[in-house]
Amino acid sequence: MRKIFTAVQIAAMLIVAALPLHAQTAAVESTLEARRVVRGADGSESFASADVAKPGDVIEYVATYRNTTREAIHDLEATLPIPPHTELIPGSARPSAARASLDAREFASLPLKRKTLRDGREVDEAVPFREYRFLRWAPVQLGAQKSVTYVARVKVLE
């Protein structure tokens, strides 16, 4: 059975969590764009509407925060949820220094690792990218009337 997701379904999960709580009370405007990545025969990329996404499609999320005040906003921390039924594409997060989480409580540098028992020994094992549920970027200072943009790509799973 093939699942089809609309960009609205996926983006709705993202838009609320994308804006940090302390920024919600400040004058920060946030926008979230979801666009389907289309690769041409020559390898070039273009973008198309992500109104409908099917398994195998790559969706790029672009979250932009804009400070509408005349004062700097300190410690703006962007968190971008990764929708269910999608897999983070390694290396697609920009800026690249994003941390990831499975539960929105604990964040760590990519790639995530977890402890597992193998042959009676505890070893570190890479967490599959399809299990990642959140990306977070380090707090930034957002100058007056300035904006900052964060980008990540996911692949829609079966």
What does this structure look like?
The structure is a single chain. With 158 residues, the protein is mainly β. It has a single domain (5-156), classed as Sandwich (Immunoglobulin-like), CATH 2.60.40. The protein has 2 helices and 15 strands. It has helices at residues 7-18, 21-25; strands at 5-6, 28-39, 45-49, 52-53, 58-67, 73-76, 79-81, 86-88, 99-101, 108-109, 113-118, 121-126, 134-136, 140-142, 147-156. The strands form 5 sheets. The chain has a 5-stranded antiparallel β-sheet. The chain has a 4-stranded antiparallel β-sheet with strand order 7-13-9-10. A hairpin with a 6-residue loop joins β9 and β10. The longest helix is centred in the N-terminal third of the chain and has 12 residues, at 7-18. The termini are close together.
Produce the secondary structure layout:
Blueprint: E1 5-6, H1 7-18, H2 21-25, E2 28-39, E3 45-49, E4 52-53, E5 58-67, E6 73-76, E7 79-81, E8 86-88, E9 99-101, E10 108-109, E11 113-118, E12 121-126, E13 134-136, E14 140-142, E15 147-156
**What is the number of beta strands?**
15
Low-confidence stretches: 1-5, 12-19, 21-25
What is the overall silhouette?
A: flat
| Secondary-structure element order, N to C | EHHEEEEEEEEEEEEEE
How far the N terminus sits from the C terminus, by CA atoms, comes to 8 Å
Fraction of residues in helix: 10-25%
CATH topology: Immunoglobulin-like
Describe the structure concisely for a colleague.
The protein has 158 residues and is mainly β. The protein has two helices and 15 strands. The strands form five sheets. It has a five-stranded antiparallel sheet with strand order 3-2-5-15-8.
